[in-house]
Amino acid sequence: MAAKDRTVDEARLDEFMAKFVQDAGAAMSAVLVVIGDRLGLYRAMADCEPVTAAQLAERTGTKERYVREWLSNQAASGYVEYDPAGGTFRLPPEQAMALADESSPAFVPGAFQIVAAMAKDEAQITERFRTGDGFGWHEHHPDLFAGTERFFRPGYLANIVPSWLPALDGVVEKLEAGARVADIGCGHGASTIVMAQAFPNSTFVGSDYHEASVETARRAADRAGVSDRVAFEVAGATEFGGGPFDLVCVYDALHDMGDPVGASAHVLAQLAPDGTWMVVEPFANDALEDNLNPVGRVYYAASTCICTPNSLSQDVGLALGAQAGPARLADVVRQGGFTRVREATATPFNLVLEVRP
Known about the structure:
Blueprint: H1 10-38, H2 41-44, H3 53-60, H4 64-77, E1 81-83, E2 88-90, H5 93-99, H6 109-120, H7 122-131, H8 142-164, H9 171-177, E3 180-184, H10 190-198, E4 203-208, H11 211-224, E5 230-234, E6 245-251, H12 260-270, E7 271-282, H13 294-312, H14 326-335, E8 340-346, E9 350-356
Parallel strand pairs: 3-4, 3-6, 4-5, 6-7
Antiparallel strand pairs: 1-2, 7-9, 8-9
């Protein structure tokens, strides 16, 4: 490269450094969101009334000096408002909805819990860059399991019953009448339970290869009062049984699998002849350049540290990645033996495919 090609544009450098400061602040503040969530600091401010650091510390059984510094960071981040006249801090209603209400479709602390898990596993992933080996889901810090469920559950509450299932041809009618449903890669069971609560005439079987997650899902089903119609089993995506099923669902998990083609073939074998497979995946376009945006940035980061290593840890190790895109996903399920694939609906964060034999 000629020397003139390396000339630094000072304006562009300044622009990048401003971006660096913003990104570094966000990254360093992520752990403070996790701390605020775990200590109940956001929940203690959910009334949206002004509070001093001392008052918040008293409410939460924490120490004022730490809370004061935490609040100052949150104010600098725009997460809380600061009133210099009274020396008080306030959590606005919009932030309260996102940070303090776990039933809200905008609830975000789970995402920061995932970030914390990624940071804790950094040394392991760095080594995999050198060796090319995989790093299985079960090998990650437990924050990943809880954070993933808490991050995805609000979206499932907001979308599965109101929009995703109705976008499938004839599926809601079957569920209302009484259908048999399999939820593959169910994790802590949030998606399975959401469906079971909405369709009391149907029965559900969730499966996951991660035994600790399956145990957590069983406890969640008991708490939700649906354990009479919901079962959870430890099984991989090419091993689950109990078919034929009227509906098989895979929520945000197909791209994580080592052998998604083999999983597709197994789903086909377990599906009723007139059954439907709903594949929910992170939203992506087919071309890399069309995913270079804030949502793609989040998904590529997660894919680098979580999804791709998990696939590489398993047989085949196809490593689709979290931004596979609809064309690649359709190719995978067709290789598994399915003949009909259509994009049923989408959100800014998810792509929903209807797959039929």
